[in-house]
Fold this sequence. Notes:
A: Rossmann fold; 8 helices; 12 strands; B: mainly alpha
Amino acid sequence: MDDCYLNMVFDGENKLREQGKTICVKDLNWQPEKERQPVLDGLEFTLEAGNFYGILGANGSGKTSLMRHLLRLYASKNSICLGEKPLEEWKQKALAKMLSYVPQNTVIEVDFTVEEIVMMGRTPYRKRFEPETEQDKQAVLKAMQWTNCEQFKDKSVTELSGGEVQRVVAARAIAQETEWIFLDEPTSHLDLKHQIELMDLMQRLCQEKGVTIVAVLHDVNLALQYCTHLLLMKNGKLCAAGKSECVGTKEELATIYEMEFEELKLENGGRYLIPVNFVK
Amino acid sequence: MKKAGYRSRWPFITILVILFLLLFFVIVFAVCTGSANIKAEEAIRLLLAKIPLLGQGIDCTESIINNHALIVYQVRLPRILLAMLVGMALSITGAAFQGLFRNPLADPHILGVSSGAALGATFAMLSGAGIQFLGLGAVGIAAFAGALITVFIVYQIAGIGAGRKTVHLLLTGTAISSFLSALMSLLMTRHQETLEKVYLWTLGSFSSATWDKVLFLILFVMVGALLLMLLSRELNLLSVGEDTAGTLGVSIQRVRKLIIISGSLLVAASVAVSGVIGFVGLIVPHCVRLLFGSNHERLMPASMLVGAIFMILCDTIARTVTAPSEIPVGVVTSLFGAPYFIYLLYREKAGQA
């Protein structure tokens, strides 16, 4: 069971570290002004490239705050290292070539075409006065093929459905060609079919292109099915973290969501958890 | 479902050329319109004669043309060019602010520029000072200073700190704006003799146009518009979302500051030469967006040209309809602007239903 759990304290000898393929969080605390409780409380863990991480926790447990810190949207005072350098020491553009972000329930109200939105993913690679290069165009085209957006590339994003917009935003993140893709509740506004579609896409990116996925998720079962690793949060603390075969037991989930779960064994060997409060 | 804008299928460069030609013809039209009867052919000759290199071969020494030359060069042309520049400045700033604040109702005056300028101008009119600087009178200088001080205060209150959201700037700007307007009203009830003068000033006019003012404004428009256009890619990202911009390598704080500084300088300089002219900066970017989409790389240059054309036409109406007296140009722009504004509001509501 030991290698099941994540290495919480980084041993410093990992080769991956040199290529920016680890994210090492050490003693991450965050308490905004006027808050009585810390939102993030002494977090410590290491993420390694190539995995599919799911962050689970009840509302207000600090999942989104954690993700915003990992993306440097909030300052983290040197407690997060991407590769060998603390996040603060990364140049803005260099960081944008490493980390990309699919924000929560994106609504784009401005009238851009799908292709223009995906091309925005190329911003860190483009010089100010240069038109888009062949490389940019190729990356955009491939990203649209991956996400199946190509057929509506000239449509305005204001005309698209929620599921289509989510795919376009995912395409933008893919065109950014980063080592890491962060998603904040990517499935929360999608119907069942589109949820599976998006998670399949992320899994393929992870397995075929070696992109590391870090997703804040609400759906425990989607997380169990797709993520290779889970991080469970409660009140700004990390309750448990590790491979999804063993972390995320019904006891652990009962702690973070404060409700009872029933576990079903699936034919493919997976687990399916049902909250019993709702099952009579 | 929100209706998407009609997109022109022509290449953008063609559209720019058409807009440039249109601008030229509107200038010619404006030169011809007025009490002195100047023919289009004369106007074109007089205009081309002033263009370097091209104009050398054009002979303007005939006597009738010579008389008209005085009217064109000394009276109509500075006024037309001033209207053109103010239209450009307000429209590009409107486009940039709407993108930056992600608010379709943002206009160039949203950060309190106009009420700051109006208060400054009121002080100058009350004091009766007679300074001249860079072609501006005391009122212009006071308006310019008032505008910039106001934006500075708004930015100091709302703009610092990473956690502050852009919407705080909007709200603070609106609050400061009402505060300053109230101060101005208070001053005016105490000094009713200047009431009419101040009131007319706040409606905007190009009747005091001079070449000095044109030169003053051209400097600001060139620098400010260039800066804004250089930031069009960043504006695209910001208009989609600040988190998106942040994770795509934009230094949000710095870009926001630069846009606000360049926009405010453009508006302050325009207000200083022409008074407060509303609606242009609000409606022109919206019209252009309907035609070419929200991409600021196209939106901003096209807005400048459309704004210039619109402002020249409005000013031509303002000075000719009730000639020899004039309507304030701000009245004309709003008479056109208000119905469109209502249409916009209606369209937004219909989109949500």
